[in-house]
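quick one, 212 residues, struct below
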Amino acid sequence: MNEIRIRDIVQAALLVAGEPLTLERLESLFADEARPGREELLQALDDIRDTCNEGPLELQCIEKAYRLQTRAEYAPWLNRLFAERPARYSRAVLETLAVIAYRQPTTRGEIEAIRGVAVSSDIIKTLVSREWIRQVGTKEVPGRPALYGTTRAFLEHFNLTSLGELPPLSELRIAADDEASQALVPMGEPMGPEATESEATESEEGGSEEIL
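---
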């Protein structure tokens, strides 16, 4: 198959997929008799990356999956396309997410020990429903508590290609008095007012929802 044709098919798939596509998913676009090799697909992706230079789109690789996305500098204009304001998450949710991101895999009990407060089941449900975390196993201790880790959707939302791009702990806001009970708040998310561990409140400014 013509290399340009392969590139166009791959680019079209990335535009409409709505999620990152692995090489395996891209291979599945082609019939067996016309399926390109890995090197051809990687070359097509490199060509797409090159054609995006200096344009509004960029090719991003997230945990060995690829997606086309708009560059961050266009966000102020693109945000005007959406009538609804994004949900604003409470400090409790963001602190719990940050502990999981930096200490994963980790249990609910370990999160509570770090934060110094009980973690509501609703907080875990919120993070799971957003597909930012998932259960990755159980800990080999009495009771076999669930172990939680972050997902590819977490990386996508925070515009990270891997966990290695998480900011250093020194750049995060420390919300505890001593090192044993640090509560870490991710950068880049708007912080709402203090909220309870189990209640969602309605923002007074334009109706955006603060979750938990």
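The first strand starts at residue 21 and ends at 22.
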